[in-house]
# Entry
Amino acid sequence: MELLKNRYPLNYNGKGSEYFGIIIINWLLTIITLGLYYPWAKARQLQYLYSSSFFNDDSFTFHGTGKEMFKGFIKALIIFGAMYAILLIFIAIEMPTIGLIIFYVLLFALFPLAIHGSFRYRMSRTTWRGVRFGYRGNRNEFIKSFFKWIFFTIISIGFYGAWMTINIRKYIIEHIRMGNLRFKYIGNGADFFILNLIGYFLTMITLGIYLFWWQKDLFAYFVDNIKIVGDEHDGATFKSDATAGDFFKLLVGNFLLIIFTLGIGYAWVVTRNLEFAARHIVIEGNIDFDTIQQTEEDYRDATGEDVGDILDIDLI
# Structure
């Protein structure tokens, strides 16, 4: 007998005006302090965004602090400073080509380290109803897999990129925990490749009109393949109910906001995106939240988070 499924709502109640106020103050303080305030600025923004995001009527909390991120920020600056120093040494001895090769190899090697470190820090500093999230990925395992996927992408002239994208997403999501609940991702590279192939050609043929259907399909593919798995019958599925029309209103609205406000509307764009995601992700299943156990450890090294910022890596 199939259990009756419950629906667990997602909501975002942050306001663009409030977020804009935070961003303006952060920019001013970051400029005045010659960039040193940046870690506190980021912590403040994340704390606001998380506290404005609700799952089943309870908000998330981000416990990361500017002090933690500042330590990671300094480490990140030292890492990049050392890389540039190596490059300058090779330029000084008139071997710039070798210096550039070493620089870009080191830069490329930072990507899996930054992704792993960012998720380990960000998940550990996130709670819901006091239950800590966690990321249990193994650094060495992820680095080996990352470079294997990169190698396949290169020798396939980019065709393996769809598999690489899904493999990274699957690895990360399946190593995330919310207490004793775990996540699964059941997407595969072949389906993702075909989805993008069809989306690309139909967008070209329709002179861009199909773009909104393509975005709808991409969003649905990322969302619909996520599951929460608990003990025995506990678990839930994710599903997108967004339409191409919804994406048209979101993307065109965001574009107009940025253009006609000369970028000032960025805060409202972030708000619109989070409200959109929360409104169009449906979570259904059977989870006894009163029995969730605290299983994850506290981790406060934000180096990966800050390196990821410098490399402009967005978390999934």
About this structure: The chain has a mean pLDDT of 90.
